[in-house]
Amino acid sequence: MTFLPLLMLLSVMLLAGCATMIDPSTFNDDIGAQLSVQPGQMVEVQFDDIRGDLTAIEFALAVPTGQRPAAGQLRVAAYDSPTDRELAAVRLERQSIQPDQRLRLDFPPGEQPRRRITVRFTGLSADLSVWWTAGSTFPASRLAVGGQAVEGSLTVSGYYRLTPAALIGDLLSGAGWRNGGVIALLALFTVGGYLIGRFIYLPAQSESPLVRFAVGVCLVMPIAAVVVLWLSVVGLHIPTPIIYLVLSAGLLALLYELVIRRSFAVSGEDALIAGGLLAVFATTLLTRLAIVRDFDLPLWGDGAHHSLIVQQMLQRLAVPDSYGPIVGLQTFTYHFGFHLLAAMAGHLAGLHPEQAVLLAGQVIGSLIPMAAFALTTQLTGRQRAGLFAAMIAGLWTVMPAYYVTWARYTHIAGLVSLCGVAAVFIQATRAPNLRRLLLAGVSGAGLLMVHPRAAVLAGALLAPVVVVLLLEHRRRWKARSVATIVAAGLALVFALPWLARLAGEYGQATLTSLSTPEEFPLGLVWTDRDRPLYVLGAFSTLAAAEFAPALTVALAGWAAFSYLAANPFLLRLPFSFWLNNSAIAISAFLPASVAAGWGLSQIWAALDKRWRWAGWALAGVCLFASLLQAPAQLELVNPITILARPGDLPALRWAAENTEQDAIFLIPGYRWQGDVYMGTDAGYWLPLVAQRATTLPPLIYDLKPPAERERIRNLADQVEQAGNDPEKLHQVATNAGATYVFVGSRPGPISAKALRSSPLFELVFDSGLAKIFRVK
């Protein structure tokens, strides 16, 4: 008993030590390339440090496989332009450089904002290069080799001196649509969480108002999805005045509870925990918003089709019948819980679809500490464990902060909702009554509409938890079994219209599709930053076998059932679920946070027995360390996934204002997953921002009929094969009926230089970075 808390304390010390030495996590992508130069040439890259708070930059060096660099030296120096004052320099023996080694330059922040930095490489050649890509964290960068400008830029990771004051300044100085959208989203979740936690959710007597509110916040999206689904079934939609009315009434009720009745107030330990949770949430929110401070459009391909769905819901706040003209009259079957809340915020703040998606994704992502708190408190019965879990999930782990890179906003919405749904299902099973059963049924149905993968993960968690609850009181196992069956049955009933729609489109395909073996992407889990957390989580799970065996069963069962659901071929099942190993990998932070939170709460309990206030001191140290982790969250954007940059926005606006409405733009793409193609630059956003058709629609085109999907894939393949050959590209464009070619500031398979020199194309717009050509 004495050795165990000591060992766990050493684990925490190891965690804190590792946290000061981490590098930003990077994930490889197949769009990058190596920039090779001739001996004696100098590589020079320039970019703008807009705020002057850049304190370090990092490059990835590359050595060809099986080849060591020749003798000599590599010198890298950073200069402050136009004074050409050297800020930092490093010199390395070329033969000492390891494959994929990262090179970092540290220098002082600027005295004034908007300084231009020049970095010069000497000593590069074919046997030693740096990673080169068309994307960068510095959108206005310029790259030159041997004094000649080239397309593309070096892949740079930036480190910023970001203080809480700077974060708040970023928020206050943001565009009006950003501030209005954030306020609208926070109002929706605050009022919704209060109303659900106060008037719908019936918790155990031991649960504080803080837990009720946290669970209520997690249930906003699934409950809203069910309400809108059934309104759509009868042909109704939610008018914007109704949203204003509910928000106003909820705010008045909340103020009445807090100020006059004070029945929703917390005190003592609950107040301290509430303060810590609020600090974690606020810091998480500021970091999530700071990550996207330089972006006007979501990243990667998922952001485009999420914006397409939100555009449909902004026209009419109901479940759409189809995906609109870009996809065609294909029946709408996409999970829509996230898009519904984004559209509500769009109605309140007057946001464009892409703005609503960008802000809603980041705000909902900042709710993960609240969700981890709710789930951990429900599984462990300890608010202290929930507070530690909130710190870890919000500010320590790479996921889900990294979701911004992929625009995996529906996935984080599903995980947030999962935590609330699991809480109400556990309550309905443990102490069933009509209200709890109805709430479990409604929220369970809504989780399917927020994200089906989250519904499968929830089932994988609840399966072992229900078994534990049935064995907990054997005299009540029949009543609890009936309650579980009734709750699951009610969920199916409330989801019936949605299930009928899914069955009509995919019923046979789902039953006949087989899961195939897939390698588990361990690299998404076992990062330098997360490794100590997973070690602590695994150790805590093992320790719980003695002190809290039900928690060990729940967490181990959750992992086992999730893996089996993602790989049903292991059980010889002739069909697949909506889950894969990648989804498990990017969701693993949640069970790890629960386990590590419980482990830290055990240390707290052990310390309390020996020294008064020692447990609170531990909590304070962990909270302070978590807040110090905030700047590290800003280094998680993968520059390769930035399709649209500031130089592209004028071109997108010009296309909307100066081209025919029936114009078709030829855009480049590459094979993304399987046989699905995705765009490589800002032209991919033309259907949303400019309302112009493209030869490669958003990823959701894969829902089209097979013949149409095949046509789009063949056309994307032809564009890729044509590459920089103007004659072949002209033939492809003519056959496709394309009248324009969009070449973004992030060059891809199509070279603007090649098109400019060809008589087959006419340059009609040039922003200095992005270009539009007319097909002659």
Note the gap between the termini: 81 Å
Quick one: biggest sheet?
6 strands, antiparallel
Overall geometry comes to: globular
| Extended strand count | 19
Strand content: 5-15%
Helix fraction, binned, reads 40-55%
Overall pLDDT confidence:
82
**Overall radius of gyration:** 27 Å
Write the layout of secondary structure elements.
Layout: H1 3-19, E1 33-35, E2 42-49, E3 54-62, E4 73-81, E5 85-93, E6 102-106, E7 115-122, E8 129-133, E9 142-145, E10 148-150, E11 153-154, E12 156-160, H2 164-172, H3 176-200, H4 209-218, H5 220-233, H6 240-261, H7 269-291, H8 302-315, H9 337-349, H10 353-365, H11 368-380, H12 383-396, H13 403-406, H14 409-430, H15 434-450, H16 452-472, H17 477-494, H18 496-512, H19 531-547, H20 549-566, H21 581-587, H22 589-610, H23 614-628, H24 630-633, H25 649-658, E13 664-666, E14 669-673, E15 676-679, H26 686-690, E16 693-694, H27 706-722, H28 726-736, E17 740-743, H29 752-756, E18 761-766, E19 771-775
Parallel strand pairs: 13-16, 13-17
Antiparallel strand pairs: 1-8, 2-7, 2-9, 3-6, 3-8, 3-12, 4-5, 4-7, 8-11, 9-10, 14-15, 17-19, 18-19
Protein described:
It is a single chain. 54% of the residues lie in helices and 13% in strands. The protein is globular, with a radius of gyration of 27 Å. The chain has 776 residues and is α+β, with helices and mostly antiparallel strands. Strands 1, 3, 6, 8, 11 and 12 form a 6-stranded antiparallel sheet that branches. The protein has a 6-stranded antiparallel sheet with strand order 5-4-7-2-9-10, with no helix packed on it. A 5-stranded mixed sheet has the order 16-13-17-19-18.
